[in-house]
Amino acid sequence: MFPLTNQLPDLPTNHLLSTLPKEDYERLIPDLEYVTFALGEVIYESGEHQHYVYFPTTSIISLLYTMETGMTAEMGLIGNDGVVGVALFMGGDTAPNRAAVQIAGGALKMEARILQREFQMGGAFQLMLLRYAQALMIQISQTAVCNRLHSLEQRLCRWLLLSHDRVQSDNLAMTQEFIANMLGSRREGVTAAAGRLQDERIITYHRGQITILNRAGLETQVCECYEVVKNATERLLGKA
User: Fold this and answer.
1) Mind listing the pLDDT tens digit for each residue in 199-226?
2) 3-class SS at 207?
């Protein structure tokens, strides 16, 4: 990890930060630190006090809820379109859920007190965060509907498309067990659903590596939930 210089970083950036006026972004640069995350790394647990927020650049972070039985399901995912730590500017300082790394990669880290100071100043930074919070709420709500009403194969397509939108590669490194935890399903179900997509040459899966061969094929099989989330995000935040 390392602090950024006073020049705009020559790194993959975060869409939220890139929408700020140049003078606002430049003011924030001394308070940003570039960090990297490994696959499966836990950023925070439910109920923990949050001391930092993270603006993903090449990583994707899953927001998870774990039941008393140990079953886990993803509520939302955050990539280079967002920020991890919404509670810190929405009136809380503890995490309502677990955050774990779904796709390894980088992020820009900021102290919570800096984010709260900037938020209280109002202006473009505050508006950006509030609009993102609304987009995330829509994603979380639509995920709940999707998990209740749509087939596992449709949910897998939605999840793959949302992940693909947030990375610059057709290759996604993750195990089927990890995907099952994200979708709140059994591994056997994910294996069967992924197998059908592989038979249709939409994806390939080998030793923890999923490759998207035919994005259009995913789009023809996904449920309406993907477009709802995608359209809401673009309306509120613009296209990444």
Assistant:
1) 999 999 887 789 999 999 999 999 999 9
2) coil
